[in-house]
Design a protein that fits this description.
Layout lengths: L1 E2 L1 H6 L21 E6 L9 H16 L3 E6 L6 H12 L4 E4 L5 H10 L4 E5 L8 E6 L1 H15 L4 E6 L4 H17 L4 E6 L6 H13 L4 E5 L5 H9 L2 E6 L10 E7 L2 H13 L7 E3 L6 E4 L7 H16 L9 E2 L5 E3 L7 H5 L15
Parallel strand pairs: 1-3, 2-3, 2-4, 4-5, 5-6, 6-12, 7-8, 7-9, 9-10, 10-11
Antiparallel strand pairs: 11-13, 14-15
Helix pairs in contact: 2-9, 5-6, 5-10, 7-8
């Protein structure tokens, strides 16, 4: 059963009894209260929608033994902190925080309530009952870069980015490197909109890139189809993250780098119920069946598709990383020496662009 933000704000949830350890099954009449808090509307597409799908998988798994409260369009900052605290006061013992900016408030809440288990998207802080989680989008965007370069006539690719955080920077860098593996002359321009949800700004950013001659655009962490629809109207190829937006670009949709959070959410809830939840960083990719690519455009040639599938196989088995040296940054300096593969810590903290990305990072 899912409760909406509106009903949540009007009424309090019934408090649930703390679960004894270990618990092989629910006690009579016992319900696990779960709260999902996201920064944008959980519509039919996008990041928040994908997280909601993960909680629907929990509902399918546990039926009436679980109650999910969806709190959407919650701005980062004091309002989010207040709402987080209210969810716990109202009896929710499992929280999913769907935005990087919820980190500090969520960590404080976790320390004050050791009986509550918290999953936090895109962050890096860990506590015994606080686990950050994220997706290795860069694995999929590398493949999208290969496809984009094969179809581009202008050799100019574009990206509309939400915020200049490492998770998005790595996606852009991998996209660029994948494209350059097919055509070394490829360049990538970026417009940052500094918002997770701003349809008007996203559409204007897409139009600005198209005006610069970009003929393939990456919609990087937009929760609306604004970029996708603008590119379809202009006849430019486009792809996005998290969930398919093909219905908004039936002709020019390049594909999607999708995410499936259901397995991770199920595993985490099961650990919470069993009393074995331990805070740990979960950075999930293709091998964990979290990141996938789908909806490839039929305009991609059979030759290119075969090359993409060959690289896809190496990403799946871990024998290849897009961040394998030598790599040069956009200032022309060596960023990764030949033969060196960047480790997770370096990728998770990436604050530089590879050569070929023409837009400087915001200061």
């Amino acid at each position: 059963m899912t409760q909406t933000r509106r009903s949540f704000l009007k009424t309090s949830l019934a408090a649930s009894t703390a679960l004894a350890l270990p618990i092989p099954a629910f006690a009579e009449g016992e319900v696990l209260n779960v709260a999902l808090i996201v920064p944008s509307p959980a519509a039919d597409v996008g990041w928040s929608h994908t997280l909601e799908l993960g909680t629907k998988a929990l509902e399918a798994e546990y039926g009436d033994k679980i109650k999910v409260t969806l709190l959407e369009n919650i701005a980062e900052g004091p309002d989010a902190d207040r709402i987080m605290n209210k969810t716990v006061a109202d009896g929710n013992t499992f929280l999913i925080l769907g935005s990087f900016g919820y980190m500090n408030g969520g960590l404080k809440l976790a320390k004050a309530h050791p009986e509550v288990s918290i999953l936090h998207a895109s962050g890096y802080q860990v506590a015994p009952n606080f686990s950050p989680f994220g997706a290795r989008y860069y694995q999929g965007t590398y493949l999208m870069g290969m496809a984009a370069a094969s179809l581009s006539k202008s050799k100019k690719l574009g990206c509309v980015g939400a915020f200049a955080i490492p998770e998005l920077i790595t996606s852009i860098n991998a996209f660029t490197l994948g494209a350059q593996a097919v055509d070394p002359a490829i360049e990538v321009s970026v417009v940052w909109v500094n918002s997770w949800f701003d349809p008007a700004s996203e559409q204007e950013a897409a139009k600005a890139l198209l005006a610069q001659g970009c003929d393939v655009v990456f919609s990087n962490a937009q929760d609306t189809p604004s970029v996708v629809a603008a590119c379809e109207a202009a006849g430019a190829y486009v792809f996005n993250l998290n969930s398919s937006m093909k219905t908004y670009a039936p002709k020019k949709y390049l594909g999607v780098v999708g995410t499936d959070w259901a397995p991770y959410f199920k595993e985490s809830v099961a650990a919470h119920l069993a009393g074995t939840f331990k805070g740990a960083s979960a950075w999930l990719g293709m091998a964990e069946k979290c990141v996938f690519v789908a909806d490839w455009n039929p305009d991609i040639s059979a030759e290119t598709a075969a090359k993409i599938e060959a690289v896809h196989a190496t990403l799946l088995d871990g024998s290849f990383s897009p961040f394998t040296g030598p790599l040069t940054n956009q200032d022309g300096a060596e960023a990764v020496p030949a033969g060196t593969v960047l480790g997770d810590d370096a990728i998770l903290s990436m604050d530089w662009h590879v050569k070929g990305v023409t837009t400087p990072l915001p200061k």
